[in-house]
Design a protein that fits this description.
This protein is mainly alpha-helical and 415 residues long. The chain has 13 helices and 15 strands. The chain is 43% helix and 8% strand. The longest helix has 22 residues. The radius of gyration is 21 Å and the shape is globular. The two termini are 21 Å apart.
C-alpha cells in the first residue's frame, strides 16, 4: 500500500486553518467547524470528533503555535454551547449565525417546540480536552450548567419504565436518516446510538466532578451509578439474543385500554426491537460495555460479506436491509449504506477494546486506502463514500472525522 498516511497528514496540516474559525455574531468564542458546506457552523458531535483527531496530531504540526490555537478553539466549542444554554438546561445541537438574533433551535425551543438537544458529547469533549492539557480548572465554573444539561435530558428524553433515552424526533440526530428513528413518531425510539454515547457521557461527567474543585465525590458516584443503570437497561432491552446484535427499540409500548376487551393480560414488555442492522449496533464495543461473548458475535457481523463488510471499512447499514441506498443527499445526509469514517473509527476502536488487533488493522488499512485514493484523485476528502468502489458521494473539502484515520494508525502502533 502506498504511504497514504504521509499524504493524508500533509493534507490535514495544510488545511487545518480552514476549520479553525474566529468568533462571529453571537458565536462569541473561537470554534472548529467540519469544513465543506458546514462552514461557520458549530455542531455538537462534529466538534468532538474534530478535536479528537486534531489533538492526536498537534505535536506533529510544523507550526509551533498551532497547538495552543487548536486547544483554544476546542475550549471555544464547549464555551459556545454553554453560552447558549437556556434556563431549563436545553442546549442546541447546532449553532449557526444567520438572520436570527440567537440560535434557531433555541428560538423554537422557547416557542414550546420540543426538539432534540445537544447530543451526549459535551462532557466527553471537556474530558478529551482536559485530559490532554492535564487541567480541569477551566470548567470549574460550569458544573451548575452541566447539572442543568443532564436535568433537561432526564426530564424530557428519559423513559423511566425502560430506563432508556429517546430522541424527540429525527432532526439532527447525527446519523440523519437512520431508519430506526427517521420518519417515526416523536418520542418513540430509544436509539442505540444515543444510549451508547450517553453511557460514556455519564461516566465522563463523573470524571469531571472528581477532577474539578471543589471535588464532589458523592455526586460523581451518583452519575457512575446512572451509567451502570443505563448499561443494564441497554443489555436488557436492546441486545437481541437470537440475532446477537444490538438494536434500537420502540418505547411506545403499552396496553391500549379502549374498551371492555382489554381486561386480561396487558402489555408487560417494555420495548419492541426495531430490527434494522445499523453500524450503531457496534457502539457497545466502542463504549466498552458489551460482554466478551457479545463482542465475538459482533465481530462476525462486522466481517460478514453479506451485511457490513466492505473493501473500505463497514457499510453504515447492512447491505441486505431493504432501505440500503447510496443516493446523493444532504439534510438529511445519507447513512443508509455509504462509508463514513466516524463509523469506521468507532468500529476500529471497539475491536481494539476487545483485543481484535488484526481485525482492527484491516479496518485501518481499508480506511487509508479509501481516503488516500480519494486524495490522490480529487486532491480533497469527502463526507461519505460508495462502499463498493470507494468513489466519493458528496461534499468535497470535508475534514472533520476523516482525521480519525490517522488516530487508527497511531493507536495500532501502540499495540
Amino acid at each position: 500500500m502506498k504511504n497514504y498516511e504521509a499524504s493524508l497528514f500533509e493534507f490535514i496540516e495544510k488545511n487545518v486553518e480552514n476549520v479553525l474559525k474566529k468568533p462571529v455574531g453571537f458565536i462569541k468564542y473561537p470554534f472548529i467547524d467540519p469544513g465543506s458546506v458546514y462552514d461557520g457552523n458549530v455542531w455538537d458531535w462534529d466538534t468532538y470528533w474534530s478535536v479528537y483527531g486534531l489533538l492526536n496530531l498537534v505535536n506533529r504540526f510544523t507550526d509551533v503555535n498551532l497547538k495552543d490555537r487548536i486547544i483554544e478553539h476546542a475550549k471555544g466549542n464547549v464555551k459556545n454551547f454553554l453560552d447558549h444554554q437556556l434556563e431549563d438546561g436545553y442546549i442546541p445541537m447546532m449553532i449557526e449565525v444567520g438572520k436570527w438574533p440567537e440560535p434557531y433551535l433555541n428560538m423554537k425551543h422557547k416557542e414550546g417546540i420540543l426538539m432534540n438537544m445537544h447530543k451526549p458529547f459535551l462532557c466527553s469533549q471537556i474530558v478529551l480536552i482536559s485530559d490532554f492539557i492535564k487541567d480541569y480548572s477551566w470548567v470549574n465554573d460550569t458544573i451548575s450548567q452541566l447539572d442543568l444539561y443532564f436535568d433537561c435530558y432526564y426530564k424530557n428524553y428519559y423513559f423511566k419504565n425502560c430506563g432508556l433515552f429517546v430522541w424527540c424526533d429525527d432532526i439532527m440526530i447525527g446519523m440523519d436518516n437512520d431508519p430506526a428513528s427517521f420518519g417515526r413518531p416523536k418520542f418513540s425510539t430509544a436509539n442505540i446510538f444515543l444510549n451508547s454515547f450517553m453511557v460514556m457521557e455519564l461516566n465522563n461527567y463523573a470524571k469531571i466532578l472528581k477532577e474539578c474543585a471543589p471535588y464532589d465525590t458523592k455526586k460523581a458516584e451518583y452519575y457512575l451509578m446512572e451509567a451502570q443503570k443505563l448499561e443494564h437497561a441497554i443489555q436488557e432491552e436492546m441486545y437481541d439474543k437470537r440475532d446477537r446484535f444490538f438494536y434500537s427499540v420502540d418505547v411506545d409500548v403499552k396496553t391500549r385500554n379502549f374498551d371492555w376487551f382489554h381486561q386480561g393480560l396487558g402489555v408487560f414488555w417494555k420495548t419492541l426491537p426495531i430490527k434494522i442492522r445499523c453500524w450503531s449496533g457496534f457502539l457497545p464495543l466502542y463504549a466498552g460495555f458489551a460482554t466478551k461473548e457479545q463482542a465475538k458475535y459482533l465481530v462476525e457481523h462486522i466481517f460478514d460479506e453479506e451485511t457490513f463488510k466492505s473493501p473500505y471499512g463497514i457499510t453504515t447499514l447492512a447491505k441486505d436491509e431493504k432501505m440500503f441506498d447510496l443516493s446523493v443527499t444532504n439534510n438529511p445526509s445519507n447513512w443508509l449504506g455509504p462509508i463514513w469514517l466516524v463509523a469506521n473509527y468507532t468500529v476500529f476502536k471497539g475491536l481494539l477494546n476487545y483485543g481484535y488487533v488484526k481485525e482492527a488493522e484491516e479496518i485501518c488499512n481499508n480506511s487509508l486506502l479509501l481516503l488516500g485514493t480519494d486524495l490522490e484523485k480529487s486532491k480533497s476528502l469527502h463526507e461519505y463514500y460508495n462502499p463498493f468502489n470507494g468513489e466519493p458521494i458528496m461534499n468535497g473539502g470535508f475534514i472533520n472525522w476523516n482525521i480519525l484515520v490517522l488516530n487508527m494508525v497511531n493507536e495500532l502502533k501502540q499495540c
